[in-house]
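The data layer described in this paper is built around a simple, fixed record for each protein. Because each token names a local backbone shape, the row as a whole describes the fold. We quote a single record here, exactly as it is kept in our systems:

***
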Amino acid sequence: MTAGAGPPPELDPVIHAQARLRVVAALNTLGDRDEMAFPALKDLLGMTAGNLSVHLTKLEDAGYIRITKTHKGRTPVTYVALTKRGRLAFDEYTRAIRALLDNAGDAS
């Protein structure tokens, strides 16, 4: 790092876990009002239902995602969407990662 650059940026620990980062990155590709069905997200990420559920709970507790449970006919369906807070947190996270990587070249 260059002198006077300050401490490295803080990385959001909720998003920083690899599985949660993948979830948030996938949901960030959706529009502001769009959502993804749980099975589609599970298949897209190649995760088990149980593992995905654990990570979704942590993201929901942080206010980063919204989970909507409904029915399609008689079949229960769970939808997942990134909240405005989650989108902002992901933007801040990506800025922090970029700053950290940009400064990594200055360490020599």
Summary: Residues 26 and 84 are 15 Å apart (CA to CA).
